[in-house]
Design brief:
Blueprint lengths: L6 H21 L1 H26 L4 H32 L1 H23 L3 H14 L5 H27 L1 H10 L6 H39 L5 H11 L5 H18 L2 H27 L7 H36 L4 H7 L8 H8 L1
Helix pairs in contact: 2-3, 2-6, 2-12, 3-6, 4-10, 7-8, 8-9, 8-11, 8-12, 9-10, 10-11, 12-13
Length: 358
């Protein structure tokens, strides 16, 4: 029936459906975000659980041991970062003093170059700060408690996803006719393989990028090399945007702690070299994902994820777009959308296509 609709009706229905989905994600972000992370981690931890069951470990105990291993690794990472953050906090007064000096230089440059007086600049800053005064302490407290609640819920969700996996798979297959069951099972298996390949590859890529960042920053004598290198590698998980933010942040902190323009330039050069290595070698070779998304869709997806669910939405956007592409490629009516998300350029010359249509 839908195939017989005119084109404008199909486009209207698609845009309305997309709008309702995005609106639902925005409204339910506090529920959907921890569920999304739990879903991805449960796929990642499934091989560990499977291995323990193969060693004749009871299924519930295998899931608990798998969770404990994951939590231990997470605590070790947080502990290491906390020690680095403590040393950074001790130097905050010096950083603040250097930032004030840098801001004075920027104000002087703006005043000389654009005839934009310091009073006018201060007036704009005061106006911007007044507009943010509406943020209440209780709302900030709500954000913190909400984040802590999400962190506590994620292990619970992971346990439930792993425990009820057979039930969830059975439910999905039962939604379709028997003639489609084999195809549905293939899609589910492909999604699992793609996500496991993507997440493990991403973790390996992040580790290599962190090692390269830290090594480069240590070589130039940049302060907080471990902290900045690891944070930059984590931000690099946000495609295209995270690397730029990490480079600016590192360059700024390097300059405010050392006052050396040479080290600032070297920090930028190091991050540019690491980005070149990452984009041209690590991403295509290490991640080796079966699903390739084009840059345009990746950037739009990251921005939409950030607008809907903040920073967690940016991290979750790419894996779930990849899942959508796997599904689109398997459904005949949705294959054009799968091509739109992909990175395979059509070989056919568009001029010949238009001539043929004429």
């Amino acid at each position: 029936m839908i195939r017989s609709w005119p084109l404008y009706a199909k486009i209207t229905a698609i845009f309305f459906l997309v709008y309702m989905i995005l609106y639902g994600l925005y409204i339910g972000q506090d529920i959907i975000t921890p569920l999304g992370f739990a879903f991805l981690f449960s796929i990642l931890l499934r091989p560990v659980e499977k291995k323990l069951i193969k060693w004749r470990c009871p299924r519930v105990l295998a899931i608990i041991i798998t969770l404990l291993i994951a939590i231990t690794v997470f605590i070790l990472i947080i502990t290491f970062l906390s020690t680095q953050i403590k040393s950074f906090v001790k130097d905050i007064p010096e950083v603040k003093r250097n930032l004030n000096q840098l801001w004075d230089q920027v104000q002087q440059w703006l005043s000389n170059s654009f005839n934009f007086t310091e009073k006018q600049q201060q007036k704009m800053i005061d106006k911007a700060s007044d507009s943010n005064m509406g943020i209440q302490p209780m709302s900030t407290l709500g954000v913190i408690t909400g984040s802590l609640a999400s962190i506590v819920l994620i292990p619970v969700y992971i346990f439930l996803f792993l425990y009820y996996r057979p039930l969830l798979v059975s439910f999905i297959t039962d939604l379709f006719d028997k003639k489609h069951i084999s195809n549905v099972q293939e899609v589910l298996s492909e999604i699992r393989l793609v996500m496991q390949s993507y997440i493990t590859g991403l973790m390996l890529e992040t580790s290599i990028v962190a090692a390269l960042n830290v090594t480069g920053l240590l070589l130039i004598g940049a302060p907080f090399a471990f902290l900045l290198g690891i944070i930059a590698a984590i931000l690099n998980l946000i495609p295209y945007i995270g690397g730029l933010v990490a480079m600016v942040l590192t360059a700024l902190i390097t300059y405010t702690n050392t006052g050396s323009m040479t080290k600032l330039l070297w920090a930028i050069i190091i991050f540019l070299v690491v980005q070149l290595i990452d984009n041209n070698f690590l991403v295509p070779k290490v991640i080796a994902s079966k699903v390739k998304l084009n840059a345009l869709i990746s950037i739009i997806g990251v921005l939409i994820g950030g607008a809907l669910c903040g920073l967690p939405g940016m991290f979750l956007s790419i894996p779930f777009i990849a899942i959508c592409k796997v599904i689109f490629d398997r459904v005949d009516e949705l294959q054009p959308w799968g091509k739109l998300l992909g990175d395979d350029m059509p070989v056919t010359n568009l001029r010949h296509v238009f001539k043929r249509k004429k």
